[in-house]
């Protein structure tokens, strides 16, 4: 099984801090330029999508690279997603937009933390999804969550096929569902020694975010 309780985010270089700061600043500038006084009821419309894409697309590329290669999500990238999401929504909807971003962050954290309690993903994934939830706001987080679940399922299946562990993966999923029955408990699965067996769920989160953003009405 490719489940684990957490993963390290240590060893972050100064370059990663610089990249994250640059991304947040670029997204903030784009949001002010595109959204200021133009989109009081965002998040919809081309201005919001463009500003959000200025933050989400480069972050998706960086996080995908780090999660696939190192199986970790650097904290500066998570903070960049969070700060950029707050600024973009504040520029789009003022105080109401900011509240929606904070609500989206809280709701996304709660949804992903539930899966973390089942041992389905690491703490770094929970933090990342909460940060991305700040960009999409309270109303869009449920849709984002469903897209990420589907994307993550596909990624887990591909990982299982590549490693030849499909049968073990299916049995693990069955054990989780059986653990939901009254009187049963959800099993926790050990972290695989082979890191290649760990599903890089940060990839699923960022891919799901890009898909959800692309589906927003222009």
Keywords:
mainly alpha; about 75% helix; disordered N terminus; about 220 residues; about 0% strand
Describe this structure in words.
The protein has 218 residues and is mostly helical. The protein has one domain (14-214). The chain is built from six helices and no strands. The protein is globular, with a radius of gyration of 18 Å.
Order of helices and strands: HHHHHH
Shape descriptor reads globular
For the record, the count of structural domains works out to 1
The N- and C-terminal alpha carbons lie at a distance of 40 Å
* Annotation field: number of helices: 6
Structural class computed from helices and strand pairing: mainly alpha
Helix percent reads over 70%
Strand content: under 5%
Radius of gyration: 18 Å
Spans of at least 5 consecutive residues with low confidence:
1-11, 37-42
Largest sheet geometry: none
Compute the average pLDDT.
76
Q: Please count the beta strands (DSSP E, at least 2 residues each).
A: 0
Write a compact overview of the structure shown.
With 218 residues, this protein is mainly alpha-helical. Helix content is 73%, strand content 0%. Mean pLDDT is 76; it is low at 1-11 and 37-42.
């Amino acid at each position: 099984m490719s489940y684990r309780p957490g993963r390290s985010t240590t060893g972050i270089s100064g370059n990663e801090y610089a990249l994250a700061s640059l991304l947040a600043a670029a997204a903030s500038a784009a949001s002010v330029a595109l959204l200021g006084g133009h989109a009081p009821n965002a998040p919809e419309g081309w201005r919001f999508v463009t500003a959000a894409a200025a933050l989400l697309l480069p972050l998706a590329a960086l996080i995908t690279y780090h999660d696939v290669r190192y199986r970790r999500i650097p904290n500066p990238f998570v903070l960049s997603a969070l700060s950029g999401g707050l600024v973009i929504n504040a520029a789009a909807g003022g105080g109401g937009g900011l509240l929606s971003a904070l609500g989206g962050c809280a709701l996304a954290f709660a949804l992903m933390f539930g899966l973390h309690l089942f041992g389905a993903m690491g703490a770094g994934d929970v933090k990342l999804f909460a940060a991305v939830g700040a960009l999409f706001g309270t109303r869009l987080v449920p849709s984002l969550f469903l897209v990420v679940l589907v994307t993550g399922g596909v990624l887990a299946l591909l990982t299982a096929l590549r490693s030849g562990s499909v049968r073990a993966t299916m049995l693990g999923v069955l054990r989780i569902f059986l653990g939901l029955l009254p009187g049963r408990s959800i099993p926790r699965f050990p972290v695989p020694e082979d890191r290649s067996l760990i599903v890089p769920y940060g990839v699923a989160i960022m891919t799901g975010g890009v898909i959800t953003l692309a589906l927003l009405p222009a």
